[in-house]
Structure formats: structure tokens, C-alpha cells
Amino acid sequence: MGDGYGRGKRRPYVVFASLRIAKLPLMSRFDPSDALYVDLYQLTMAQAYLRSGQTAEATFSLFVRNLPPDRGFLLFAGLEDVLGYLADLRFTSQDLDYFRRTGQFGDDFIKYLAGFRFTGSVRAMDEGTAFFANEPVIEVTAPVIEGQIVETFLINQVNMASLFATKAARVVKAAGGAGVADFAARRTHGTDAGNKFARSSYIGGFIGTSNVGAGARYGIPTIGTMAHSFVTSFDSELAAFRAYADAFPDSTTLLVDTYDTVKGVEVAIAVARDLESRGNRLVGIRLDSGDLASLSRTAREMLDGASLGYVQIVASGGLDEFSVEALVKGGAPIGAYGVGTLAGVSADAPWSDAAYKQVTYDGRPVAKFSPGKATFPGPKQVWRCFDEGDGPVAHDHLTSANADSPELNATTLLHEVMRAGAVIGQLPSLDQVRDRSRLELGRLPESVLELAGPTSVRVRVSGELDTSSPGRERI
Amino acid sequence: MGDGYGRGKRRPYVVFASLRIAKLPLMSRFDPSDALYVDLYQLTMAQAYLRSGQTAEATFSLFVRNLPPDRGFLLFAGLEDVLGYLADLRFTSQDLDYFRRTGQFGDDFIKYLAGFRFTGSVRAMDEGTAFFANEPVIEVTAPVIEGQIVETFLINQVNMASLFATKAARVVKAAGGAGVADFAARRTHGTDAGNKFARSSYIGGFIGTSNVGAGARYGIPTIGTMAHSFVTSFDSELAAFRAYADAFPDSTTLLVDTYDTVKGVEVAIAVARDLESRGNRLVGIRLDSGDLASLSRTAREMLDGASLGYVQIVASGGLDEFSVEALVKGGAPIGAYGVGTLAGVSADAPWSDAAYKQVTYDGRPVAKFSPGKATFPGPKQVWRCFDEGDGPVAHDHLTSANADSPELNATTLLHEVMRAGAVIGQLPSLDQVRDRSRLELGRLPESVLELAGPTSVRVRVSGELDTSSPGRERI
């Protein structure tokens, strides 16, 4: 057997060469529209739907089948991008030219795509809502081709944004009241992820981002200190610190670990005194390596001993919710955390099994029964049920969309947000979404918020949803 | 202590509120340029450099300090995007307006940014080259502000693309000659990652992608079958299969596991006979759930029993290099694999510690000595040394950039690819990069290619690089 690298006894590629491949001579570059962020099969199915006259309305549900490891909840995020995409969805003339050149599609279908718009309706949870396994966060009702074509983008954005918001909420919880900022831009999977992590982490409770473009795009506070390279550029640490403080006399945080942290703190203290003599104040020092618990205590003592109690300590360098929690529990005198890579890729849970499944076609409930992937048929409503009016969440209740309230103190979570392809009303601001998220988290039981081994909230499934799958457990 | 969610005894956010925050009233949306995909500190440092006259030339090295777990090598990818970014780098008038409104920067600096261009030079490995810990894959030499501002984007793109190409190469190795296609678009971290995974996985040996936009952008073959929702839309599986086969009589692969896989194969056989009677051929069937080893054998027997030996079996559903290897080693009669989520987020290694470090300033070698993060000073060359002329890689040798060849059979890996901000010559085509990658992998020792617990290639460090860090091990 070959190893795929051209050694040993090789088999040729046996099948995919003929499986819907459109290999083109290298084209002149063009920038495909968002409409082309789509799996090919969405378009091949669309042509088959069109030609067979199978174009009735369908409803699709977006949900996660299982919460990722160590997650008792997920925070819903990504809706604003989804609605913007749906409202603006068009195939450009360049996109259509590409299809013509591939020869994959008929002229009838390309003509259909030229006039393509999303004309459907969307019901969704509010961004910032906590959700659990098998609960639809978005339901799309549209002519089946429209509802199908948007699948790839919708799963992509909601899965990413919700994982990111959830990860951020965990770090914020661990920080116990200290501020947490997004330093992830350099290690996220690409720029879309970097921008969306800034937005989602702000929803999850971060107080700002180092990512300038995300700050500009979303109106998020931007935050920054200095890099080691700035220090090494100058002949001495003192010269570097002074140059920075001269440029930003009221907003300087000095990175003290480039050469030797304790000496770095001494130099920072000297610069703090310079600033004081000119009527300014050093804001903080940053520790980015070594034993942060011990170094932060040493630095705090040195600063306090120099009557610089107002100079705060910022910590960064490979942090996540677990290491932040350890520092906070150990009483490290750290005022703020910069959290990057491990949060920005949701390292302990970089994916969920988010799915987008058809639940009706032409008014008929449908479902799939594939092992481990069975779905509940029909459009749904999610009800959140509280112990008392303002008590913690007791459980959720999943019913068909038009069911009556299954119990007292139950609130519906899915609301119509788009009709006939147009957004209904005004979307909440990012700060409103962030407030919503904080409120939601405040009403989850403590055991659901645990960083390791959390429980989840029970989701009761109404009998009417639970029709046909043998072996599906009814509650 | 509070928990960050507004319960218990709360401390206010103590520090970041004054740490370089620019909180704006929510702005009218604009689409920031790539130049704003930058950590704020790159720009604050730039203003400090400018004002202190610290603007000499510097060299920066991009490398990984440690290979991720279970990685004996990484495949270098991302250079084409890096060079495109550097060549086109501009701050737009909207970007500059944003800076004016934040009040974070002085008019002198904003004026500087208005005329900003990248004027430096770049030395880099070829895309598709295998590299190891501490080896620079890119070295940037430019006026220090220019070299610094590009850090965030460069790390982001190279880290992502190299992790993706490497992950893909592992799956290709596991598949042992069967084709592997990218089905990851829906679960990557955003659209940039989805597009770059398609490109990087093609470099790593995948044969195509489901991502239409990536196919269009990069000239990669696009591949697709059908979704479960297509099947559930129709009154019966047979009606669905027929509708698809009518639309694509020469390129249909039927998804057979929506209801019951064995019955689905029976229906597919009926459709294959229909196609034969019209002079066409069913290309394949796809299994997406259940015990793929056992189902593929059953399906193969059924197909062969119906004289449909030419109908291939495609497998998908939560696959990665480990599950593909198990199927291949178990002799599962699967002709091709569709690999999505676990590859598209590089799930077992979603990040590397890729870093971009200043190694000279104004001709002077510099380094940082932070614990665990120390760097070698000065610009470098990486030499690949082979046992014989065309034998496997023996080891690498890291020297200063201008050193003579350290030994026989040594080849330099870093070449100048950009001078004065312009790309030198013609970049290789994506297929050339893919060929390069295949060649590279073919010359790595087997132990380096192991999926679990690989060895790596030894990187000798020349004495002249190893100057000042106490405790650094010399080879």
C-alpha cells in the first residue's frame, strides 16, 4: 500500500477524479462574493431541485447535537452576520462567469442564480442567549433552494461565534472581576476568525481587543501595550521605556520581561518617577513569561515599596480560563489579563457538531434517522423555564413552533427576526448583546458554569416532536 | 470575589479601563482594510519609534519555537498571501478617519500612515517546504516601523496555513493512496480559514474541495455529492436519487444513509441500473454515519453482486487521519474520503507557538531572553542536509545568513522573494507548490512522518548564533 507521498506500492486516486471535479486552467484571480462561500453540493442539489420542480417551502433548524467537552452551555452569537449575509446575498457577474467556465451547471440554473435573492423568514434566539443541546438557535423558512444554499455560511458563522463567545465567558468567569482583553489576532485561524473573536469575546464579557480593525468595525475598545521587539530595538530597556512614555505619557504600560523581569520592574519604577515629575502617571507593567504568580507578587511589592500603588499589573502569555483561575485563586495581584491563542482558537473545544437540518418540506415534517444523527421533525419553539419569576433557570422545554406554553414561568427564546428577506426592526447594539449575555449567565445554575465537568440544563422534549425514531428517548 | 457575571462580591474592572482604551460611540459601519488587521501596540510602538527617531532598518524572523504535539514537521504555507498583503499594504482614507476620531494618535503619525508603504525585503522558504522548530520560514528586513506593523498579519496567515497544510498531509498519508477531499467549509473558524484550508489542504495533497469560492479563487477542483436534506425533501429516497441523477447523469454520487443504509444501497443500485439503461454510469455512493468499515464492506458486496464494480464508495463523517488510518489498515473498500471538521480546525493541534521576533536593529544583532522564549540573534540561513545527493533528509543546519555552506550535500532553504516592496519574479503556481510538498514529504524519514509520537529532524545551530543566552544548549 502506498503512503500518499509517492513511496511504496501506490494505488492511483480511484474515484474522486470523476466525482464532480471541475479542474480549470489557473484563472485570472477574482474575489468571489460571500455567495460562493458554499459547498458545491448546495448548488448541485439546487439545480436538481429546480429541474425536478421540487421548489416548495422548507424549514431548516440550526442546532448543536451535543455540547462540546466541559461545556454546560453555549452562548449564541453570529446572528448579526447571518442576517447581513442573507439580506445582501447575490451572485455577482464574476461568480456567474466562473460557473459558465466550469461547465458544471446548465444555463437554466445559472440564469436562476443571476436573479437569486433570499426571500425567506428567520426565527432566532437573541445573540447572547445561553443554549443547550438540540435547541434550534435559528430556524430558516424559505423556498427549499434558498434555505439550502445558505447552510454552509450559516453553520460556519454561528458555530465559530458561539464557540468563541462561550470560551470568552469562561475566561471572564475565571478572572473573577479582573478585566480580560483579547490578544488573539495573531493566532486565530485567519482574519475572519480574528475579527469575529474580538466581537464574540466582547459579547462574552471581555473589555476590549488588541485588534484595531475589529475595534473600528464593531466599536469595541482597543487595547495595547508594547512588544519585546520595541525594547530590543533600543540600546537599553530604559531608553525604550522612556521613548514610549514620551509618546504616550498618560497611557503607558511597560513590558518588563524582555531581559530580566525584576530588573525590568526597577527600570519601570524609574520611568514612573520621571512621569510623576512631569505630572503624569504610569498606567501599568506587563508580565508575559515566567512564573506569573510569583513575579506578580514580587513586582507588586516593589511597586508598593516605591509608593506606586496605582501602577497596575497586567499578565499575558499562553493564558486560558484554567491558568487564569489558578492565578486568581492563588491571590496573584494581577489587575488585568491579556488572553490570546488558547482562547482565540477555543483550544480545548475548537469545534462543535453544529448542524443545519431540514425539518419540514412543503408543510410536511421530515427527519433523518442516521445513527447518532437523528433529528426531531417540524419547526420548533424553545421555552426557558425558571424556578420562580426571577430565579435561576430550572430547565428548557422544546415544543413544536405553534404549541402553547408548556408550563408556568416559561419564556419563548425564538423570535422572528427576518421576513421576506428583510431584517425586522432594529438589531440590538453590541453592548446590548453583551448585557444580555451577562444577564443570561447570571441566571444559570452554578453547576452549569463550572469550567470542568459542568452539568447542563435539562431540555424537555414535548411528545408531539417525538414521533417516529425508534429508540429515541422521550422525556 | 465576584465571578465576572455580576454575582457575589464584585470588584470593578481595575485597570484596563485606562489602558489604551479608545471607546467610541458606535460608528457608522465601514470595512477596514487589511492594514487594520493589526494589534494596536504595533501602531503605538510605531508612533513612539517615529517620535524618538528610532527608525533604522531591522530584521524580523518568523518561526515556531516548538512543533505542536504529534508533529515531526510542519509544511510551510501562507507565503503567497503574505507577499500579496505586503505588496498592497495601504491605510485607506476611512482607516485614517477612524484614527482621527479615536484620538489615540497624533496628526504627525496619521500623516505618516497616509503615506505608508512596505518598502522592505523578504527572504523565505518556498511554500510546501517542510520545516522544524526554530527555523525561520520568513525573514523580513525593513525600516523598523514597517517590519513591526506587519507582524500580526504575517503570523496569523503563516501559522494557520502551515497548520492546515500539515494536517492535510497527515490525512493523505493515512489514506494510503485513496483520494481525500476538503469538506470543512462549514466548520472552519470563519470564511478566511475555510478558503485557506482549501488552499493549504490542496498543498498537503488533498485532491479537491467542496468550497466553491476557494475553487474559483485558487483554481482547485471542486467536489460535491448531496445532503440528507435533499433526500428528505422528496417523498421517497428513490424519487430523490432519480431527480439528482436526472440533473447530473454522468456525475452522481448518492448519499445512502439518510434512513437505512442497506436499503439506501438497494435504492442506489436501482438508480444505477436506470442510468445504465440510458448509457450513463453512477459514479459512487456516500456513507456518512455508522460503522464505516462494516457498512463499506456490505455495500461493496451488494454493488459487486449487482455487477456494479465501477461504483465507488466515498466515506465521510467526523473523519481525521487516525480514523482514516484505521479504515485503511482494516481493508475497508473505500475509494475516497471527505474530511471536514477535525481537519479544518486542525483539531488535535489547533495552534502553534509561531512567533515573529526582531533579530537585528540597525545592523546590531538583538535577542530576548525571557524564560522559554529566548531567541537566536541575527538574520539566518537554513541548510537542509541529505545523507546522499538524493537520499533522505539527514538533518538541518541553522547558520547566520551570510555563512558558508556548513557541510556537503547542503541546500539553502531561504531565498529572497521580495525586494523594495516588490515580489521578485513569478511565484510558483499552486500545483507547483503541491508538487514541492509531495517531494519534500517523500524525502523525510519515515519516523518523522508518523501520525503519533514522531521524531523530528535535528536542527544543528552554528556556534556563531549562540552568543549570549546563559543556559542555551549548543550543538
Question: What is this structure, in a nutshell?
Answer:
The structure is a homodimer of 475-residue chains. With 475 residues, chain A is α/β, with parallel strands linked by helices.
What does this structure look like?
The structure is a homodimer of 475-residue chains. By secondary structure, chain A is an alpha/beta fold. Chain A has a domain at 165-344: TIM Barrel. Chain A has helices spanning 40-51, 79-88, 93-102, 107-114, 144-149, 151-175, 190-203, 212-218, 228-233, 237-247, 261-277, 292-305, 321-329, 341-344, 430-442, 446-449; strands spanning 57-64, 74-75, 121-124, 130-131, 138-143, 179-182, 208-209, 253-255, 284-287, 312-315, 336-339, 354-361, 364-365, 380-386, 393-400, 410-412, 415-419, 422-423, 459-461. In chain A, the strands form 4 sheets. A 7-stranded antiparallel sheet of chain A has the order 13-12-1-5-3-17-18. In chain A, strand 12 and strand 13 form a beta hairpin. Mean pLDDT of chain A is 90; it is low at 1-27 and 468-475. At the A-B interface, helix 1, helix 3, helix 6, helix 7 and helix 8 of A face helix 1, helix 3, helix 6, helix 7 and helix 8 of B.
